[in-house]
Amino acid sequence: MTQTGMFSESTRKPTRSTGPRYLPPNLRSPQNGNAAFLDAGAPEFTPSRFYSPQPARTTRGRGRGRGPRYTPRRNPNWEDEKFDELEVVDDTLEEVKVPNNLDAYEDIPVQVSGDNIPPPVKTFAEIDLGDCLKQNIRRCNYIKPTPIQRHAISIAVAGRDLMACAQTGSGKTAAFCFPIICGVLKHPLTVARRGGGGSGLACPFALILAPTRELSCQIYEEAKKFAYMTGVQIAVAYGGTPIYQQLRRLEKGVDILVATPGRLVDMVERAKVSLGMIKYLALDEADRMLDMGFEPQIRKIVEQMDMPPPGTRQTMLFSATFPDEIQRLASDFLSDYVFLAVGRVGSSTDLIVQKVELVQEMDKRNHLLDLLHSQRSNATPHSKHFLTLVFVETKKGANELERWLSRNGFPAIAMHGDKVQMEREQALRSFKSGATPILVATDVASRGLDIPHVAHVINFDMPKNIDDYVHRIGRTGRAGKCGLATAFFSDKNLPLAKSLTELMKESKQEVPSWLSQHAENYSAGTGSAGGWGRHGRGDFGGYDFRKDTASSSTYNNAYAVPAIDGYYAASAASVNVPYGYTYGYGSIVASGWD
Ligand SMILES: Nc1ncnc2c1ncn2[C@@H]1O[C@H](COP(=O)(O)OP(=O)(O)OP(=O)(O)O)[C@@H](O)[C@H]1O
């Protein structure tokens, strides 16, 4: 029998399920925007504000706080905004709030390589982030840093370039936002120098690039929360909406610009944005930004538009996946960088229960209906509010499935690149709020989006490669919560069998025997190594491609030290371990990273 009991393995004919379907704990028993720009009267900042925050409004923006009254110098360019309003408020789903469980990331091995690596921290308090930012970190309820944050923030605040890879939902956004905001606060620019002096040319100090409009907006919203009441000016630029509104905002001056590449190129070519002052450059979903689709635009932005060169600017690349060839390409943009991998590059988190079902193309719709009916009938008062994200291959397929699900009693909405931006945003809003609890999307929704309450990701059509699968399923199981991912695997997907098997094994998932068999047959038939060949060596563990080329003597300043509380603390002592150190379990250290 197949893993799911839905199909007979020998005939592969569908046999309707009679027994109860598997539902993971998160679906069973659940104890488990676009606001206007910046703060209410945010004051112009000065270096002293880095260390001396203005008194917080203790009611989180509602009414007056206690303590000494602070009347900030109002800047007419800033519109009133309160911290609470910077959050995506989804009152309808308030009752299903599941707390983050960041302890889930404690056991993940960490590998760091490079020269003179700054040691990690255990708490936010240990890093010199400034009082204002620290206060906002507390406001966001970030009690302690996740592993990627412990390492990356310390490395970035020390001024080092960074290529960082960590699992989906493990807090990479804050890992690049905090050092950037901290850097801006330490080197404040005058309004004129940041482009707000009426020159019509915005000169941001930091640039964060992301591949999709929705992700840019999300990073922008997050960054605004982190920079609340600091005076740091943040703006967003993305396509699909009138450029003039965004340009008007930029005319007021900007410290941190979050952008999609196309819209940014347009603005630079219109001489509305200069990249000449960029000190910090962050690429989120960096492997996507440097793959064939985006690479020419990124090269143009980074190499031909006045941006200071590597070494002068600080560059940070983040993703959950980092194929070798992209690492190689990315090194053009970096200078003496540290490579950081939390978990193995491109691995998935075992917080996500992965199910693979053998379903032929013509049976997929009925199979999906069965799955949704079963989910509905097993739902508890709590889990009935959870959201389901269904990935399909084509835009047309998304529209068709949306209509078909809605006709069959499952309210769904589609999101894809052929929809106008307003429709895309509307779809996402409706999904996030729970008004339409099923989103049918193409890969436009596969990366970076942090949507609370997504409990189930269904790969109705499998993606073309395993990295996309990792990002897609990563829309659930975030911030330490669990999630479920179901994949419909058909004959079309045989080339994916080996890498999927390996990914599942590594994430401690049960691999159906038919899938293992396909994996063996397919790689034997094609003579292909398949699987993790994308990382060059077919091994497990974080992997810095420089290890294949660098002489170890270049990287003799690294160290490894014993675990404290299940985590390894750094020691200043160099023990002359060639090329990098590894945090985590001994078994991982010996697993072939060196
Ligand atoms: N230190 C922390 N404490 C509490 N919550 C956190 C912390 N860091 C991040 N989070 C929360 O975890 C969630 C996931 O974070 P984030 O979106 O940055 O993940 P990511 O690693 O960028 O994921 P992806 O690879 O999908 O882009 C967010 O809701 C964020 O607010």
Automatic annotation (TrEMBL):
Its EC number is 3.6.4.13. This is RNA helicase. It catalyses: ATP + H2O = ADP + phosphate + H(+). A motif (Q motif) lies at residues 122-150. Keywords: ATP-binding, Helicase, Hydrolase, Nucleotide-binding, RNA-binding. It comes from the Eukaryota. InterPro entries: DEAD/DEAH_box_helicase_dom (IPR011545), Ded1/Dbp1_DEADc (IPR044763), Helicase_ATP-bd (IPR014001), Helicase_C-like (IPR001650), P-loop_NTPase (IPR027417), RNA_helicase_DEAD_Q_motif (IPR014014). Residues 1-77 are annotated as: Disordered. Residues 153-340 form the Helicase ATP-binding domain. Pfam families: DEAD, Helicase_C. Residues 364-519 form the Helicase C-terminal domain. The keyword DNA-binding does not apply.
